[in-house]
Amino acid sequence: MPSSLALSLPVSVMRPSPVPRVPEGSGWQHGAKLDGFRAVAAWLPDRLHLHSRTGRRFTEFPELLALREALPAGTVLDGEICAVSAEGRMDFDALQRTAAYRRAHGIALSYTVFDLLADGEDCRPLPLTDRWARLTALLDSQSMVRPVLATDDREQALALARDLAPMGVEGIVSRRWTSRYDPRLSRGWVKWRTAESQDATVVGVVGPVRRPWAVQVRLGGTVVTTSPRLAPADAVRVGQRLEGHVGERLADAGGQPVHAVTKEVVAEVRRTGGRHSTTRFVRLRPTAE
Q: Among 189, 151, 149, 193, which Cα is nearest to 171's?
């Protein structure tokens, strides 16, 4: 452990538990869930040390070396490395490209902070209220590292998540103000992913025609396959609705046949944001809609 740090590296990080909805009531901070690489940043006397949530040292982001001058030695932060296009949208794929590629395409890297782990002393035993107050005071003195966008107001957080989804915000991470930074506290941090339903034209069925495992829909000019597998009742309803309107076999998907749909049918689907996006089947729209 470097003598200037009050904790050992690598640091075990908090991992939010998934929840179906953003927590209600007081006592929570709601912050933007970003689409990047989780990273602990430690300011050492002679360098900036970055490691992933699994402890792997990051060496592929030379653009962030300038952050070494931003904060004093002994500071340890938990945050997210994001690649941001000239239009302000997060680009996860660009994180996996070279610095030269990012420069050539006008993509910048940012480090956005969730939490303060050390500021000369180990802050992890402190409640989030104290850690956040120290963090905002620390970051207020410079402009290179910024805290994550966060609020106490659940409805405001939901509105921000919806508004910023096109920019790559995946949802909301909610944290109890009273919680310590302790990865053993599985419900101290929870995450909710943005998911909005929309209508899409059904263009194919995957698997047995009478009880398909999935449907293929056209979204924004792209054909996608719904996931996870259709519930048994939904599979029966889809098969009945499409009876007599399934055409030729087009291809295979995951070892299952795909057949074209020859009738105008619209499905309601729900798509999650971010790099782990999925398109979930909700229902078929009634023909009168």
A: 193
